[in-house]
Design a protein that fits this description.
Elements (H helix, E strand, L loop, with lengths): L3 H12 L4 E4 L7 E6 L2 E6 L2 E5 L2 E6 L2 E5 L15 H9 L4 E7 L4 E6 L4 E5 L4
Antiparallel strand pairs: 1-7, 2-3, 3-4, 5-6, 5-9, 7-8, 8-9
């Protein structure tokens, strides 16, 4: 059985410069893992997508946190915990679609309720 990573690579080779969409039917929810700040990996089934650029989480058309928010105070009693926030918003949701905008490689990981993680380069 092909992993999500293998399916994405195959689609990229087939489509070239077109936008790529991959429908995903996972039995398990996703999990965000801190590799070494500020680098995170998103575990999707038996695959990992490494997020080594800026990314943000969008729920109900609002940005709820970004990759740069971890350990920020924001007037809170304790520093913001990005992994905890991810678990709160996404741990029970399943990924339904992955989109890659080629050739700029913006990435959207879309969950079953329409919320999503969006990764993109902030500079050329």
């Amino acid at each position: 059985m092909e992993t999500i990573t293998e399916k994405l690579k195959k689609k990229i080779l087939e489509k070239g410069d077109e936008e790529i969409s991959l429908e995903v039917n996972l039995d398990t929810p996703s999990l965000l893992v801190l590799n070494e700040a500020p680098y995170y990996s998103l575990k999707l089934g038996d695959s990992y997508i490494h997020l080594e650029c800026f990314w943000r989480a969008v729920v109900n058309s609002k940005i709820v946190f970004t990759s740069e928010d971890d350990k920020q105070m924001f007037g809170l009693d304790k520093p913001f915990d990005l992994i905890e926030a991810f678990q709160k918003f996404f741990s029970s949701k399943r990924v339904s679609l992955i989109k890659i905008k080629h050739p700029i490689a913006d990435l959207q990981i879309i969950f079953e309720d329409g919320s999503y993680i969006e990764a993109f380069a902030r500079s050329c």
